[in-house]
Amino acid sequence: MTAGTAPRVCMVGLGRDEALKLLAQAPLGRVVFSHQALPAILVEANGYIVIRTHTGAALLGRAALSEVVAYEADDLDPRTRTGWSVVVTGPASPVSDPSDLTRYLTVLTPWVGTEMEHVVQIRADIVTRYRLVGGESGS
After folding, report:
1. pLDDT (tens digit, 0 to 9) for every residue of the chain, 139 residues total?
2. Is residue 47 within 8 Å of residue 90, measured between CB atoms?
3. Residue 3, helix vs strand vs coil
4. pLDDT given for residue 83 in this prediction
5. CA–CA dist 42, 5 (Å, integer)
6. Residues 26, 75: contact at Cβ < 8 Å?
7. Is the dihedral of CA 119, 95, 56, 37 positive or negative?
8. DSSP-derived secondary structure letter, 58
9. What whole-number distance in Å separates Cα of residue 115 and Cα of residue 40?
10. SS3 of residue 98 by DSSP
11. Alpha carbon separation from 92 to 10, 55, 79 (Å, rounded)
């Protein structure tokens, strides 16, 4: 590779199961909807992305209406330009089952020191996923 030449990188599709496993291991992701995105913690459970959030969060309003939202997480290395990205799109809904709520509040630890007593799940209807892998350097 010569100076000023970036390494060649190929975009390769991931299988759905592999993508959800990667997503489950990601320590941080982003919720996307038509208002302000919020910090979130996630775990993949039975085809759902599960997020703790706070009272007054815009996501709670979307979940109450079962609006479609997206959740994205990735692990990218800027030096090698490799990594992966996964986006899950589907309807959000509040977790209301008392046993599920208790379990998620125990398992999911918020990153921020504020009240996060609400839990929202996003059904993984569409999973867009890819991996960036290194190839031969450009000439």
Report:
1. 455 566 688 989 999 989 988 988 887 787 776 554 444 445 555 778 888 888 888 888 888 888 899 989 899 998 888 999 999 999 999 999 999 999 888 888 777 777 888 999 999 999 999 999 986 544 3
2. no
3. coil
4. 94
5. 37
6. yes
7. positive
8. H
9. 13
10. helix
11. 33, 16, 35
Q: What's the pLDDT score for residue 48?
A: 86
Collapsing DSSP to helix, strand or coil, 46 comes out as coil
Q: Which amino acid is at 104?
A: Y
Other Cβ atoms closer than 10 A to 31: 25
**What gap in Å lies between CA 133 and CA 81, rounded to an integer?**
8
Distance CA 3, CA 119 (A): 49
- Two structure tokens written together for 3: 């100076």
Residue 62 is predicted with a pLDDT of 84
In the numeric block, the tokens 């996923």 are attached to 129
Tell me how crowded residue 68 is: count the other CB atoms within 10 A of its CB. 16
Tell me the C-alpha distance between 20 and 14, whole Å.
Answer: 10
Q: Helix, strand or coil for residue 32?
A: strand
Q: Which two tokens stand for residue 131?
A: 């991996």
- φ/ψ region of 130 (left if φ > 0, alpha if ψ in -120 to 50, else beta) reads beta
Q: Enter the DSSP assignment of 105.
A: H
